[in-house]
From TrEMBL:
This is Protoporphyrinogen oxidase. SUPFAM superfamilies: FAD-linked reductases, C-terminal domain, FAD/NAD(P)-binding domain. It holds the Pfam family NAD_binding_8. GO terms for molecular function: oxidoreductase activity. It comes from Leptospira jelokensis.
């Protein structure tokens, strides 16, 4: 039966959700407080090339491919050379930064060790117990840091792997197998990620009602709404609206991220690559760097090289000049050369990422409870976003599928 769906927040979460409901034949109204749609995702065209404001790519699955075909968006696959991914460990670039012994231990932890989460341990301590310190420090720390925008001591395993059974009966391998869906690598689009937003809008516009300049301001307001309500606003904006519904330990911690896109004359690494991930204590402030022009065609004009550096909140850094100097210093640690950039573009997102820690785990439990209480009262209201079951676009796409 055709349902009436009201979606608040037209970032990618709201747009994906609107897409899924349109496919089901529902009647959708999308409300957005800004004038523009897409939330943090946008691509700026500058004279040196493309500058992504947030996501640089999306992990492709069969369902995402179907959606892209539907909205008429051509997929841009990465160049072959970008298969190379580096870790910067012990001041060196390495593709396999652990010893054979640590690698064997990692295999044991994945295939044979019973998977157990401990609510009071942060990810770093849990990782040391589960995989050993070498794997945790040299592989997991750099890999997750770049995705979650922070260091392992600010994350919690149970929150990051919320779909896994960590009660001590399963193994990591079994959980990966259970949750696995075939993926086809990270892709982008000819004019960058902004294409995804513009094509979704073009597809949805004739099929749904879109109201901009409309802001969700209270829970009681949506409880009165006729039809089903989907809350897709960011956690930063949702937390004050929820107010005292969240106990202090359920209040999420929010992380600030800065991205710096740098255009220069030379490549960061000798061979082209996807990017470099940085461990803790390597003398580098960045969490990771993506080598955009090695990764995708059409990211630069002429022979320039483009890199996007990702930073956690840096205390005391306020001006673009200070940020530029940090990027150049970080870069010099890798290249052993100081080369002036052609241009640098910086974006800072205050509180953009939910910290995937214990508070977020408890916050999500409370949101599940609130949804269940609404259901008992005959109300169909649900929360969606990058704080529910994964921060990336692929997770958001999957969790918004009805
Ligand atoms: C720097 C950076 C790099 C990233 N890189 C990647 C990547 O490479 N790959 C990947 O998969 N993911 C990446 N991500 C993650 C991904 O981009 C985000 O998780 C995702 O875009 C979040 O989308 P959203 O719609 O949930 O939130 P938002 O984009 O924040 O959208 C929320 C929308 O709700 C609106 N809104 C807010 N409050 C209200 C209100 N009260 N009433 C009505 N509307 C409201 C906002 O205006 C906004 O339009 C990255 C994120 C960042 C910040």
């Amino acid at each position: 039966m055709k349902e009436e769906i009201h979606i608040y927040g037209a970032g990618i979460t709201g747009l994906f959700l609107a897409y899924h409901h349109v496919k089901r034949g529902d009647s959708v109204t999308l409300y957005e407080e800004n004038k523009t749609l897409g939330g943090v995702i946008a691509t700026k065209k500058v004279k040196e090339g493309l500058v992504e404001q947030a996501a640089n790519g999306i992990l492709l699955t069969k369902d995402i491919k179907t959606m892209l075909d539907d909205i008429g968006l051509k997929t841009l696959f990465p160049k072959k050379a970008s298969k190379r991914r580096y870790f910067f460990i012990n001041k060196n670039l390495s593709q396999f930064p652990i010893s054979l012994f640590a690698g064997t231990k990692l295999l044991y932890s994945i295939f044979l060790k019973k998977l157990k989460f401990y609510p009071n341990l942060n990810f770093e301590d849990w990782g040391n117990i589960t995989f050993g310190s070498s794997v945790t420090k040299n592989i997991i720390e750099p890999a997750l840091g770049g995705i979650y925008g922070t260091r392992l001591n600010e994350l919690q395993a149970e929150t990051v792997f919320s779909k896994w059974d960590g009660s001590g009966t399963s193994t990591i391998f079994k959980e990966i197998k259970k949750n696995k869906m075939k993926t086809y690598g990270t892709v982008s689009f000819p004019n960058g990620m902004g294409d995804l937003v513009s094509h979704l809008i073009a597809y949805l516009s004739p099929k749904i009602k879109i109201q901009t300049g409309v802001s969700l301001s209270s829970i009681s307001e949506i409880e009165k709404q006729k039809g089903s309500v989907r809350i897709c606003i960011s956690l930063k904006k949702l937390t004050p609206i929820l107010g005292n519904l969240l106990n202090p330990e359920e209040k999420p911690n929010l992380l600030t991220i800065s991205t710096v896109t740098r255009f220069g004359e030379t490549r960061l690494t000798k061979k082209p690559c996807f990017g470099v991930l940085f461990g803790k204590g390597e003398g580098i402030k960045a969490l990771g760097v993506l080598c955009n022009s090695d990764l995708f065609e059409g990211r630069v004009t002429g022979h320039l090289h483009s890199e996007t550096w990702i930073y956690p909140k840096l205390d005391g850094i306020t001006t673009d000049k200070e940020m530029e100097s940090i990027v150049e210093t970080d870069r010099e640690v890798i290249t052993k050369n100081r080369e002036k950039a052609k241009a640098i573009y910086k974006t800072t997102w205050e509180g953009v990422f939910p910290a995937y820690d214990r508070n977020l785990f408890l916050c999500n439990q409370k949101l599940d409870e609130i949804e269940a209480n609404w259901k008992k009262q005959g109300l169909d209201i649900q929360f969606f976003g990058n704080y529910r079951k994964g921060i990336g676009l692929r997770s958001i796409f999957e969790t918004t599928m009805p």
